Amino acid sequence: MVFVRSSKPVAALHGDGLLRAGVLLDAGDLVPGACGVSGYWLIDVRDAEEAVERVRRIPLPACVVEIRQVAVV
To answer: Would you tell me which of 18, 35, 40, 58 could form a disulfide with 24, CB atoms 3.0–4.6 Å apart?
Structure first.
């Protein structure tokens, strides 16, 4: 799961590349907080290295990005 904090709505920020690659499962904006607008992309990749590499390809100016592994149940 990729969390992004930005001054713009995140779901609209270039998530289409992840969709075209076939790894985007879900995306959305979270309730605005003190740090601005936050959003998420739920992606399906092999490992953390692939997640980092895919997110690096997305232009995210002035954003704070956090990548976390989600447990599969």
So the answer is: 18
Residue in the structure block whose two tokens are 């997110």? 55
C-alpha distance from residue 57 to each of 16, 21, 26, 51, 73 (Å): 12, 12, 18, 10, 29
pLDDT of residue 61: 76
Instruction: For residue 15, give the nearest of 3, 24, 5 by alpha carbon.
Output: 24
Cα–Cα distances (Å) from 39 to 11, 17, 46, 73, in that order, read 6, 16, 22, 23
Q: Is the pTM of this model over 0.70?
A: yes
pLDDT value for 32: 67
Q: Give the pair of three-digit tokens for residue 16.
A: 């289409």
